[in-house]
């Protein structure tokens, strides 16, 4: 099989940076992107092409960037939507603008970037679109509601998209990692502000302390995680012969969280089943 071409957003750190290294090590080609292309200039030494791309740009601008990216190697086979950040804060205190900014990157920017590449993928009747989600899409946390909601939104958008693209021959993969040792919690947008409202003070202080203590002590190994994702996309190693997963949890904490939520949902369905059905005509 000839080398595949991957375009990866948000490659200046974390999962994105590791994706570049792993994909090149597998013999494929990479177009690494970031808002500030100078932050990823060193990736050219690894063999990657680099491209400035801000997922919050207009659809017209993203469409132009897609054409520019495709012209580098003549095609893009795999799009990895990795760019994102974490917005902390109590919902009553977070403003509309803060929520919009969170969704503009994690949801709208991701979908607009995907939309820019879909005509190309459709023309080839092949390709993979990867979305880096989070286990918090399954079970929301206090004082980080905007982030949880954004990851839940992209989960269900990706589910719908998969049903639209499957008949064409394009696959989608929503990856839902647990806590991994990336720079996500170090980003400027990840400040753990304590609530100014007394009623929320205790919980916001506890959440801020938990995240600060947790930062750098997350159980997930980023290198292993990216290796597993690439295994699935390429159908290699331990993923060989396995059915394609529409959703891929990564990390023991993600598996535990998602299983617990599913079991709780099934218990509640059973307890309220007759009550719920009683509303039928």
TrEMBL record:
The keyword NAD does not apply. Coiled coil: none annotated. GO terms for molecular function: oxidoreductase activity. It comes from the Eukaryota. SUPFAM superfamilies: NAD(P)-binding Rossmann-fold domains (SSF51735). InterPro entries: NAD(P)-bd_dom_sf, SDR_fam, SDR_oxidoreductase. The keyword Oxidoreductase applies. Keywords: Oxidoreductase. PANTHER family: SHORT CHAIN DEHYDROGENASE, SHORT-CHAIN DEHYDROGENASE_REDUCTASE FAMILY PROTEIN. Belongs to the short-chain dehydrogenases/reductases (SDR) family. This is Uncharacterized protein.
